[in-house]
Design goal:
Catalytic activity: N-succinyl-L-glutamate + H2O = L-glutamate + succinate
Organism: Halomonas ventosae
Bound molecules: the ligand O=C(O)CCC(=O)N[C@@H](CCC(=O)O)C(=O)O, zinc ion
Number of strands: 16
Distance between the termini: 44 Å
CATH architecture of the largest domain: 3-Layer(aba) Sandwich
CATH class of the largest domain: Alpha Beta
Strand content: 25-35%
Keywords: Arginine metabolism, Hydrolase, Metal-binding, Zinc
GO molecular function, one term: hydrolase activity, acting on ester bonds
Radius of gyration: 19 Å
Structural class: alpha/beta
Shape: globular
Order of helices and strands: HEEEEHEHHEEHEHEHEEEEEEE
CATH topology of the largest domain: Aminopeptidase
Number of helices: 7
Pfam family, one: AstE_AspA_cat
Number of domains: 2
Largest sheet: 13 strands, mixed
Helix content: 10-25%
């Protein structure tokens, strides 16, 4: 039923069963594409975990990865030991195999959201589910991993975005992520209203956007490099201590500047295929825009992450980032 839940969600079919048992606990469908799992006896160290995928409908590897973890739970190979909320972010975009339908869902996770439309409605529904889930588990440490894949290749194929926050990320996260094969960390310099930022900002969760390779259609993903990440997710599901690695093996960056698209006549001045984290020397012209003029690299070299000239007007067309020391 659990692994089937993903397929049914994608096909728009109602699930065969809305609740039931798994080893160590129970599951119930709390909303379309939102599954809650409640352990009979959570371990003291278990986090209240939100695991989401498909916020962008064409990013399929994370959905396959979560499907595998749920299948192992259903087969009795894992025993539920932590409260979990598993989310398929944008079911209609997933069915269409597109990043989004009308607007980018991952810019809408703000309690002041006033926009109307299917994606704003979905953002409001997901924010309410996350609020209710964490409220059902008071006193427990909170975690949210929002799983994505990137449009382009990357110098670091597996990296995380750490949302902007006033307080530091719990240090064990760096050890867990290093052991899970994450190669780089990008610290956001300002509020970004993404799903992971929502959990961090409003709920104090240890939260990240995880970029797990490159976006490919269903059936074309090689999940082999994600095996260590699967082990981390399984440890979270079982409520046991995940494997720890050396955070020094990861490369840390911080965002310095957000490049916005201000007009129809916006273009990036480097090839579309430029991999994430490519570095440009001082003086390089990076973008031209009819409203904002040209953007050039200043005195310090800048690396480009998530370049995309096709974003909606007013949206982020790239993050410009610099190396940063690892957290103390
Ligand atoms: O590859 C790209 O250009 C986009 C990949 C993606 O969807 N990234 C997330 C990052 C969210 C964050 O900044 O935390 C996004 O753009 O929504
Ligand atoms: Zn994405």
């Amino acid at each position: 039923m659990l692994a089937e839940w993903l397929d049914q969600g994608l096909e728009g079919r109602p699930p065969s069963r809305a609740e039931g048992g798994v080893a160590g606990g129970r599951f119930r469908l709390v909303a379309p594409g939102v599954l809650e799992l409640v352990p009979d006896a959570p371990s003291a160290e278990a986090r209240a975990c939100v695991l989401s995928a498909g916020i962008h409908g064409n990013e399929t590897a994370p959905m396959e990865l979560l499907g595998e973890v749920l299948a192992r739970l259903e087969a009795g190979l894992l025993c539920l030991g932590a409260p979990l909320l598993v989310i398929l972010g944008n079911p209609e975009a997933i069915r269409r195999g597109e990043r989004y339908v009308a607007t980018n869902l991952n810019r809408l996770f703000c309690r002041d959201l006033e926009e109307a439309g299917d994606e704003p409605d979905r953002a409001r529904a997901l924010m309410a589910e996350v609020d209710a889930f964490y409220a059902r588990h008071p006193g427990r440490e909170r975690l949210h991993y929002d799983l994505h894949t990137a449009i382009r290749d990357s110098r670091f194929p597996r990296f995380v975005v750490e949302p902007f926050a006033a307080t530091p990320t719990p240090p064990e996260q760096w050890r867990w992520l290093a052991a899970a094969g994450i190669q780089a960390v990008l610290h956001q310099h300002r509020h970004s209203w993404t799903f992971s930022h929502y959990a961090r900002h409003y709920h104090g969760a240890a939260a990240f956007t995880l970029e797990l390779g490159r976006a490919r259609p269903f059936g074309h993903n090689d999940l082999t490099p994600l095996a260590p990440m699967a082990r981390l997710l399984e440890a979270l599901v079982e409520g046991r201590a995940p494997a720890e690695g050396d955070p020094g093996a990861m490369t840390f960056f911080r965002a310095e500047h957000e490049l916005l698209r201000h007009s129809e006549a916006f273009r990036l001045c480097f090839p579309d295929a430029t991999p994430n984290f490519s570095e440009f020397p001082p003086g390089t012209r990076l973008a031209e825009d009819a409203v904002a003029g040209e953007t050039r690299v200043g005195a310090t070299p800048l690396s480009v992450v998530f370049p995309n000239a096709e974003v909606e007007i007013g949206a982020r067309a790239a993050l410009l980032v610099v190396p940063s020391p690892p957290p103390a």
